[in-house]
Amino acid sequence: MSWRRLRTLMRREAQATLRDPFTMAILIAVPLAALMVFGFVLSTEVKHLALGVHDASGTSASRRLVGELAAQGAFEPRPYATRAELDHALVSGSISVAIVIPPDFDRRMEAPTRNGRPAVQVIYDGGEAVLAGNAEGYLRSLVAATAADLDRGDGASPRQRRSAGGVEVVTRSVFNPRLDGKPFMVAGTFGFVLSFLTVLITAVSIVNEKLCGTFEQLQVTPATSLEILLGKILPLGAVFAFDVVLMALAAGFVLGVWPVGSMPFFVTVSAFYVLVSLALGLIISATSSTAAEAVQKTVLLSIPLVQLSGFAFPIRNMPRPVQWASEFFPATHYIRISRAIYLRGEGPVALLPELALLLLFGVLLMAFALRRIEQRG
Amino acid sequence: MMKHNFWNNVAAVAYKEASVLRHDRAMIAAVVVQPVVMLLLFGLALSNKPANVPWAVLDRSQTTVSRRLVQDIQATGYFLPSRPVTSYDAGDALLKRGDALALLVIPESFRRDVEGRHPQVQLLVDGSDPLSASRVSSYIGQIAASFEVTKAPPAGGARPTSPARPAGLIDVRQRFWFNPTLSDRVFFLAALGGMLLTNLCLSAMSLGLVADREAGTYEQMLALPTTALELVVGKLVPYVGVAYLVLLFATVATGVGFGIWPHGSWFTLLVVTLPFVLASLAVGVFVSTLAHTSAQAVFISVFFIMPSFVLSGVMFPYQFMPDGVRHIGAMFPLRWYQIALRRILERGAGFLDVMVPFLILVAMVAIVMTGIRRRMKPRLG
Predict the structure, then answer these.
(1) Chain A with chain B: Cβ pairs closer than 8 A
(2) Predicted confidence (pLDDT) per residue in B247-295, tens digit
(3) H or E stretch including B304?
(4) Cα–Cα nearest to A148, from A163, A133, A134, A137
(5) Can you list the domains of chain A with their CATH numbers?
(6) pTM for this model (two decimals)
(7) Closest-CA distance of chain A to residue B217, Å
(8) Strands A119-125 and A97-101
(9) At a CB cut-off of 8 Å and minimum separation 6, what does B261 contact?
(10) Are B196 and A146 in contact (CB under 8 A)?
(11) DSSP state of A156
(12) What interface predicted TM-score (ipTM) does this complex get?
């Protein structure tokens, strides 16, 4: 391996990449856009949710309950005079939650008998499963709080009554007290962008070279396969390392998300992951003969990449065999690492097993990419 | 005469385009493999519903009541067997390492509290994944709230009929319509058709057109005695056909595989699909006018597809997104199509219920078509 030849190859690659305005635009715009888009999508905060109300009771207690539900802007009550109208609104999708307060609500509230707990019926649009799941907990806690308030108002000893209502849970969230979705998604977006964009950029660049015939030219030069490989991925790696820094700064200044752990450590790990991912891109493009084929493969690969790597859906929720399969994506391990650094501030020691796995992936993929290049020469 | 010619020419172009598609291996792979992969992923693999949640319990009370509470939580099936810890610090360390998502702290006085004043437990959750954290804490909260503290009646056999017992608290009887078990599968699969069609229409159309230009067949076709309109319509027809096939496959496969059949009318489904397919194809055509090479076409369409998946509400509920982001999402055809799909498939809505999304989609087709005319004119002239 000659350092001089490698340097020439690297300069060539860097110039080819930097000269193409379209690629440069992609390299800067996509990471930033992904950050902004993904940063905002994961939110569990229930607000301005259309709530259909059929208040058959129409008393101060029932109005108080509806008022409490509307108070913090979580629900926007819309009254419906009949049950049928309410049902129709649910079917047509103009409301996603409905609450029905029965005529005897007030009476039961004041004089609870043995089986006469005041009851309300709540109907969710289960089709919007995620929405309903979050609204459920929120609505329940609002109703419970209102009930306790109403209860206290009517004279009986709240202590004694409360004791029947089960166990109170005092919840505290440790790493993310406001349950803000941004840090979680930002840390994952690094994994998504670095995995997807690297593979796509390499695939396109190699296929373009093949089309122009410059790839064959490279192979007949005295450069060895290793030099070609490194000459390709090191300059691209540097470009993506720059992307990592750019994204980290944008996340910090625009979204206010800074890593809890060490920034230099994060950038180092990310730069290494970029090399692993570039090697994967090299393999994909070396096994495809046309640009369309390379791109199709990349896109097909990106579906499980987004879905199974834990970026959007927690891996532990998946069935066992799928959980095992997801361990074979380098992206899974990188996302785990980036979240550990970003959210929990972990250092190299705690992450040693994951880092070792990433290294193993790197070595295997590089070796495989090298073989592919040699075979063609 | 003119009319006859028009449809003749359209048919000829459509035939040519269909023959090209039939031999396009990558395209066929995309049409066949993608629906299967997505169906399996969304039907079997992915879910937001917590499962296998690792949790730890610091039981300072060590009584039957406290153990029963832990068992009750365990019985929901969302959790892995709990890990007992002996100190607060040990539990905290588990949370820090990510080995536990929640730590339940039962105080020493728990048993006494249960008998007398209102009992309290503390729950520490790892909030880094807000969705899981809020679900897990809401599950535990519900179990605890309905925990019958006096299951084993005290020796005195005190007061089973006492009216003081079920006091005040409002009984919330809830039901989940259209999806009683609140499974994510229904949520994802209802929108599967929308995802597949977005992918197909956008990437196939833009790639096809750019490839035509690269190969020079586009110029040849311009030299034919066909008008620009005939050319565009002729090109669209086979894609619309493939799109309907994919939609049919997705709907039947979800029905057969997972028992999720449309509750609404098939007719409405087919009608609403048309403006969506046309809008997506039109966006594909527009992308092809922006791109110079097929690589660029792919880049641009992928970066249209990604945000439209993320922001339209097929994967994440758009109702929760901040206002600005929600409005951006409303500019993607998929947002309106998925609203219509959910209404038809899950709620059994009729055509009137999906009128609004339908009209918006039609308007989108018109807008993008105008944009295309602007961009394409110089080249066609």
Answers:
(1) 368
(2) 999 899 998 988 888 888 889 999 999 999 999 998 988 888 888 877 7
(3) helix B294-312
(4) A163
(5) 3-42+180-376 (no CATH), 49-166 (3.40.1710.10)
(6) 0.80
(7) 17
(8) antiparallel
(9) B251, B254, B255
(10) no
(11) S
(12) 0.77
